[in-house]
Amino acid sequence: MNTKMLTVVNLALAGFLGFAVLTGTTPEASPGSTAGAVPQIIKPVDLDRSFHFAGEALPMDNFDVRERLDRELLVNTYWHSNTMLNIKSAYKFFPMMEQTLKEYGIPEDFKYLAVAESSLRNAVSPAGARGLWQLMSPTAREYGLEISDDVDERYHYEKATVAACKMLNSYYKNFGSWTTVAAAYNAGYGRIKSEMEAQRAESYYDLNLNAETSRYVFRLVAIKEILSRPSDFGFYLEEEDGYPPLDNFKTVEVSSSIPNLGDFALEQGTTYRMLKVFNPWLISSSLTVRPGKTYEIKIPK
């Protein structure tokens, strides 16, 4: 090999080794790795302890239960952006939910149900369920929510939470198990009741269900674990990083129709956008008020 070619080889080798030092990768340490690969530390979640949902213990001596929980813990731990957004949104909604759940005698763990259902957003499912609690229209009406051309109270944070609490309590009176209640919230009361009877099952963990409901309670437990102690799962944020609660407002009672909510917002010293942020249940650009009806509208301060 001539001197000129040897110099080129040496320079190339030096460049490669320099890159390896900077990135922490070498052929020996990472066989088959690609240049510029992102370094990560991926670890399994510790399952060698007790887990509970709504005060009810998971049967962790059952290998099937362990594997199903492991899946949900790993999926939510390493679903970085979505989980971080859920943690931030919890600061906005959990205080209100905790208070309402307590008032209705429902375990606080059910606040995680809203995370699993909607990621704490006013979402719309392909089946037509809406809001933080993903209520279908017949169920929403059954528990006192109004749905019309101008109003959909499934998007009303407080009222929808109350409706969800009423439904959860009605399920508990029949099942006597909060874990089964959570499964029924996902699959429907009738489906869980009939499956338990047909399969001679004593608990949710004994049921063979569709994929979504089979994962559902385990997903709730995983969300609970991560959101209650995020730093243990690699999510680091200060309290000020969370989204603030929507509690800085005044309430205006409206007993007559509003032909244009944009004009109404300006009259109240706010904007149409902020009016919708604080009152997402107002679903059109106007509000028709029937005789004898009164609405409470939040006006941000």
TrEMBL record:
Database matches in InterPro entries: Lysozyme-like_dom_sf, Transglycosylase_SLT_dom_1
Q: Answer whether the UniProt record assigns the keyword Signal to this protein.
A: yes
Please report the stretch or stretches of sequence annotated as the Transglycosylase SLT domain: 102-205
Task: Look up keyword Signal and say if it applies.
Answer: yes
Q: Where is the signal peptide?
A: 1-20
Q: Which residues cross the membrane?
A: none
Q: List the Gene3D superfamilies.
A: 1.10.530.10
Give UniProt keywords alphabetically: Signal
Q: Which family does it belong to?
A: Belongs to the transglycosylase Slt family.
Q: What is this protein called?
A: Lytic transglycosylase domain-containing protein
